[in-house]
Amino acid sequence: MTITTGRPAPATSHRRGRVRQERLTAAAFLLPALALCVVLLYIPFVYTSYLSLTEFNGLGDPEFVGLDKYEEMFSDARILTSMVNTLIWVVGTLVLPVGLGLFIAVMVHGLRGSFWYRLPFLLPYAISGIAVGVIFSFILQTGGALTQALELFGLPFADARWLLDWPLNTIVMIVAATWQGAGVNALLFSVGLQSIPKEPVEAAMVDGAKGWTMFRHITWPMLAPMTTVVVGLSIVGSLKTFDIVWGMTQGGPGRVSETLAITMYKASFMLNDYGLGAAVALLLTVVTVTASLLYLRRQLAPAKEF
Q: SUPFAM superfamilies given for it (predicted)?
């Protein structure tokens, strides 16, 4: 006959104590990171959300005005233009820097010394966005280097106002961003290509697949994980575009080339309308997070089925 004392067995008690100690240790390591996130992310987000509901010029106390700043934001034609420009940046970034990066990576993959083919495209990534903007501003400004070269050789578009007319100015700024970012995209795609197993490629080659057929049915599907990373980073980066635009046009002329990030900066720090700037910042945050989550959810959904 077994007599139960009601006390846990020593081994069970020791195991529970060890689990409790491990949880406390994990919490001790997580708390600094959690505190940092709260201080640097969540508190500013909550305060920005509050400011977006106020009239505040940086002096005195914010005056609560409800949704007036959001109504002003969606009724201002200049801000609506910056929304359109931001959308153009998203589409243009996916087509040019990502597309060109993929093309470069596929073209040099498997070649001896492929690193040296990618290097000229990778070097501009080491230059800051403001510096890229200054360089291309010198080239594309009225009477600049490009205009003089076209006039010298008698080529068309010598009279084009590259940085003055919309949407041409937005398009040429996306080209500048492509010069800076295509190389790093090519590098990421090259890493993805090197991780593709050789067996499916060799089997497809035995079946006679090559060129576009090989890329469409073998390379591109197996490159999907890296494509998810590159496209996701490009979407987030294009939504927050600031430095190249500021370096080339500062959103002008007449604010026609502004993006939402430029609009947010001007409203807050040049016009001292912190309520409107906070509303634009909140809109930009919501759009960026929503676009990222929707894209990642769609891309990672098939993986959840396995």
A: MetI-like
Question: Comparing 18 with 301, which gets the higher pLDDT?
Answer: 18
On the 0-12 / 13-18 / 19+ scale of CB atoms within 10 A, 55 is middle
68-300 sits in which CATH class?
A: mainly alpha
Which class for 134: exposed (0-12), middle (13-18), buried (19 or more C-beta within 10 A)? middle
Tell me what pLDDT residue 305 has.
42
Contact of 101 with 188, CB cutoff 8 Å: yes
- Model confidence, pTM: 0.85
pLDDT of residue 74: 93
Compute how many other C-beta atoms are within 10 angstroms of the C-beta atom of residue 271: 12
Span between the terminal Cα atoms of the chain, in Å: 50
- State how far the alpha carbon of 304 is from the alpha carbons of 226, 297, 300, in Å: 17, 10, 7
For residue 92, how far is the Cα from the chain centroid? 12
Summarised one tens digit per residue, pLDDT across range 97-119 is 999 999 999 998 888 888 888 88
